[in-house]
Amino acid sequence: MNALFTRTSVRAYQNDALKPEEIRRILQAGFCAPSARNARPWYFIVIQEKEKLAQLSRFSPYASFLKEAAMGILVCGDRSRNPSLDYCEQDCAAATQNMMVEANDLGIGSCWLGGYPNEERVLFLKKALQVEEPLIPLWMIAFGHPKEQPSVKDKWEEDRIRFV
Ligand SMILES: Cc1cc2nc3c(=O)[nH]c(=O)nc-3n(C[C@H](O)[C@H](O)[C@H](O)COP(=O)(O)O)c2cc1C
Predict the structure, then answer these.
(1) Boundaries of each Nitroreductase domain copy (predicted)?
(2) Is residue 142 one of the residues assigned to a domain?
(3) Whose CA is nearest to atom 20 of ligand 1?
(4) What residue numbers bound the domain in which 54 lies?
């Protein structure tokens, strides 16, 4: 699957918006993820408004480029679907990866922006987007057409594998 092998974090974007069908396809990929007991404890808040993206780019010191993104997705866990935040986190991580790989397949770059378990970041996101229980903001993903062709890293590490 080429989209998986060529995905790499993209932090500089062109100025254009994403098409509604591209956004839907990315979200569909998120919904395809596996989840513990098929609870699907995710909730996606899609942000395209430039002013909002600029505000959100301050949620973490490592998210400044979100203000140049065409779209941000706040990935939330839903504790009403699985009270275990650990499982919410694992399931939502799977959905996040799916969305990033699908975006790459569409020629759209993306970057994961870490939030949870950093309490300050979670609180910032809660306030900025009025996220309430049972939802908990976990992290964001920035999306946009890459400004430059990203180069792919070779991450294969033979010594990180043991066959039994
Ligand atoms: C949980 C998680 C949090 C991350 N948070 C950030 C972040 O806040 N800002 C950022 O620029 N990149 C962030 N990244 C992207 C990583 O830096 C990137 O995936 C890593 O350097 C490997 O590079 P690659 O994605 O190009 O393969 C995060 C990735 C993960 C999985």
Answers:
(1) 6-57, 63-145
(2) yes
(3) 9
(4) 21-148
164 Cα to the center of ligand 1, angstroms: 31
Helical axes 20-31 vs 85-105, angle rounded to 10°? 140
Residue 117, number of CB atoms within 10 A of its CB: 10
Whole-number average pLDDT of the chain: 97
Q: What is the pLDDT of residues 10-24, one digit of tens each?
A: 999 999 999 999 999
CATH of the domain at 120: 3.40.109.10
Residues contacting ligand 1 via CB (< 6 Å): 8-9, 11, 60, 62-63, 111-114, 153
Q: pLDDT tens, 93-114? A: 999 999 999 999 999 999 999 9
- Whole-number Å distance, alpha carbon 159 to ligand 1 midpoint, is 23
Could you tell me if residue 12 is inside a domain?
no
- Per-residue pLDDT at 150: 86
Please give the tally of structural domains in the chain. Answer: 1
Pocket probe for ligand 1: among 111, 139, 148, the residue whose CB has the most ligand atoms within 8 Å is 111
